[in-house]
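Reminder to self: keep the SMILES exactly as supplied, no canonicalising. Ligand is pyridoxal-5'-phosphate.
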Amino acid sequence: MHRSEITIDLGALRRNVRTLLRALDGARLWAVVKADGYGHGATDVAGAALGAGATALCVATIPEGLALRDEYRTERIIIMGPAGSNREVAQARDAGLELAIADGEIPEGVRVHLKLDTGMGRYGLSELPSPPAEVIGLMTHLATADSDAAFARVQLERFNAATEQYSHLARHAANSAAALRLPESHFDAARCGIAMYGLSPFNTDPQEDGLEPVLSWQTTLAQVKRLEPGQSSGYGRRFIAKAPTWIGIVPVGYGDGFRRDLTGTEVRVAGEPRRVVGTVSMDSFAVELDRELPVGAPVVLLGHGVLAEAHARIANTINYELVCGIQAGPLRARRTVIDA
Ligand SMILES: *Cc1c(COP(=O)(O)O)cnc(C)c1O
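Structure tokens returned for the bound complex:
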């Protein structure tokens, strides 16, 4: 048996795409599937997103784009990160990928989006040159769409002022947070990742924005034991039983992507919320139970009411990082795709 099972619900993904399309009110939705679809599996996610109305795929690097091209022969694929070596650019040209260009060098014979730095302070041109014929799009990226709408509006005003005269080009600025909350960010297209996966860009309950988590992650109890007062579980004896305590051992750890700083978060064991106690090891962790449960009792690590956002708060990170870190593959979590 596999140590754990990841289920990707493409039905939920399609519903999230439709929710975003409603919010976008006429602007196009471009599906961001970088980092293997935020850990969900880029190929499956891309197909479902395109089927539900997304009109292009976005990734970070040329190799990611080339891998998608094998499966998606004719769809638009946009590389959002900086172009790589000359060899990669030549491969991108041959594969018909579109490139985001963040410095003066515009390669020939490839469709290009010029990236303007309006306040992210990372990749991007500080001033927009008069766009040559290769340019089909103008873009910027928002630093605070999820946290500081006022600064995001400053960026959008700068972008609008710099690009207004080129309204025949595709102008795009929004990520998920902006697509959902800042109508003035919509322009011609929005590049949405996290919300499509049913995760909140605001690290709150995704249901507040009508989103459903696409990924769930389950396993079963591998062992159940009773600790007597004074006995401990795990490295460093960070959990010591004060009274007789039932604990369950879960056969998943940071080697699977269940991070070491998730001690204290809650998972569901046999349908009930249970606290993760002691140190999370590479291959297992412990949960505190209220009674003896059989080995094999179901454990939900994510999904079905266990929110990535709640885990992220405990681990002092964001839901994006948690899902990207899950090690799907034959040796750890088995990934199954369903359509519910
Ligand atoms: C990753 C990324 C996005 C998607 O952001 P979400 O918050 O996941 O919607 C959009 N644009 C660029 C340039 C990105 O790198």
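Points to follow up:
Residues 32, 34, 80, 141, 175-177, 191-194, 201 surround pyridoxal-5'-phosphate (CB under 6 Å).
The two ends are 24 Å apart (CA to CA).
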